[in-house]
Amino acid sequence: MNTLNTYSSFETEHRVRPDDIDMFNHVHSSKYMDYVMAARYEQMDRNYGMAMEKFMERGFGWVVRAVQLNYKRPLLMGDYFFVKTGIAQIDERGCRVNFTITNKATQKVCCDGWFDYAIIDMQTGRGTKIPEDVITHYQI
């Protein structure tokens, strides 16, 4: 993957909802993936100007190939938090997106890690090359 370029990072604010809480009274581990996916969906449109719907119109979809989550400290009901994401690497087969989830009140990292995404042809469901114009567009 191309590691020579520097990519932008973007931040989205969210709030912990009651249905995010597990039996231990903090956010369930699976919700952190949801938070990152929701932030990326919003940031693709708002910050990159290339919403998921535009990919779908072209017959493409993004799927998670691998993920790593590093839990640091819990988020609790009602906490406001920021999800900061940014492309770390991108090439014709996919991209790695790094993320950090930070509690707004304490400014402490609650979770960080990365997602590896692959692009697929929605007709076949198989991996395909990312169009060069998309790679160029995302190098902001």
Automatic annotation (TrEMBL):
List the source organism. Mucilaginibacter robiniae
Q: Would the keyword Hydrolase be found if you checked this record's keyword annotation?
A: yes
Q: What is this protein called?
A: Acyl-CoA thioesterase
Example GO molecular function term?
A: fatty acyl-CoA hydrolase activity
Q: Which domain of life is it from?
A: Bacteria
Q: Which InterPro entries match?
A: 4-hydroxybenzoyl-CoA_TE, HotDog_dom_sf
Keywords of this protein's UniProt record, alphabetized? Hydrolase
Q: What is the lineage of its organism?
A: Bacteria, Pseudomonadati, Bacteroidota, Sphingobacteriia, Sphingobacteriales
**PANTHER family linked:** 4-HYDROXYBENZOYL-COA THIOESTERASE FAMILY MEMBER (PTHR31793), NOVEL THIOESTERASE SUPERFAMILY DOMAIN AND SAPOSIN A-TYPE DOMAIN CONTAINING PROTEIN (0610012H03RIK) (PTHR31793:SF27)
Per the record's keyword annotation, is Hydrolase included, yes or no? yes
Instruction: Name the family the entry cites.
Output: Belongs to the 4-hydroxybenzoyl-CoA thioesterase family.
